[in-house]
């Protein structure tokens, strides 16, 4: 092969190589375009799958909680509003214990109280998603101690004595309450209380309020 033939062969090889390189670039670009078309749908599919899995886990957990709960003895109550009124103003509520309505601007704080607290401060606590456990002061010290233990072991819970209760025990959340007497021999139905807390904790119109110090009231509470 002479030099001219060798040169022509080399040019041909270079052209062929360029053609192959161009074809590879075009194929790569086509694959990239196809991937870019598919990618949003793939991401969407992953998001939908993740949401579906999350919902499945949530409903599975909720189902397990529901299966572990006993009968719901609570009663619904009308929403009586949530206006702030001057401290010391007495409010006549429609339910005993109250579950909503006008209230004082300072909420009774979370925790356990050895002395009664005003309904008007406690209703404010219910507005913040609290559960209020109240009891007649003349029940046994053993039951009172157990109620206080429940109150200390739970967030967003208030425990107080309340002489005006019609039953030994009353539990209130926003627009929801349960009231019952102790069982035979003065036994306390703890599960009934714990189930109420599970169902209605943090259900007030201003829920998700962090743990609060609030206010401890001392009598006299009212202006008249």
Automatic annotation (TrEMBL):
Region (Disordered) location: 1-25, 204-224
Q: Where is the composition biased (Basic and acidic residues)?
A: 9-25
Q: Which Pfam families match?
A: DUF3105 (PF11303)
Q: Where does the source fall among the domains of life? A: Bacteria
Membrane-spanning parts: 38-59
Arranged from A to Z, the UniProt key words for this protein are: Membrane, Transmembrane, Transmembrane helix
Does the keyword Transmembrane feature in the UniProt annotation?
Answer: yes
Where does the record locate the signal sequence feature? none
Report the InterPro entries cross-referenced here.
DUF3105
**Descriptive protein name:** DUF3105 domain-containing protein
- Tell me what organism the protein belongs to: Candidatus Ryanbacteria bacterium RIFCSPLOWO2_12_FULL_47_9c
